[in-house]
């Protein structure tokens, strides 16, 4: 598992606990995806990934085909209900978990640069 720098904020969070901030990693665009959702709807989205550290960029680039395949597989298994804004964070977490399986835990974030469903 890769090491990650963590920073502690001097100001407490609203709950009174210290806030842990992660170091930002490199952001790599993986492109646009158009998939048929379960139930006949479709999704068109552009996705970028945030790597864990500078070494992640090389790993993510080398695993591009595996990453795109896993994204297509996850997205095409979803329904229109799974695309709603209130559950989109769940989709992000699922994608990060799936992508970490194929990249050896090199993904810490995912960004939907565009997101259109119908």
UniProtKB/TrEMBL annotation:
Protein name: Flagellar protein FliL
UniProt organism field: Desulfitobacterium hafniense (strain Y51)
Family of the protein in this entry: Belongs to the FliL family.
GO biological process: bacterial-type flagellum-dependent swarming motility; chemotaxis
Subcellular location: Cell membrane
Record's keyword annotation contains Membrane: yes
Function: Controls the rotational direction of flagella during chemotaxis.
Keyword Metal-binding: no
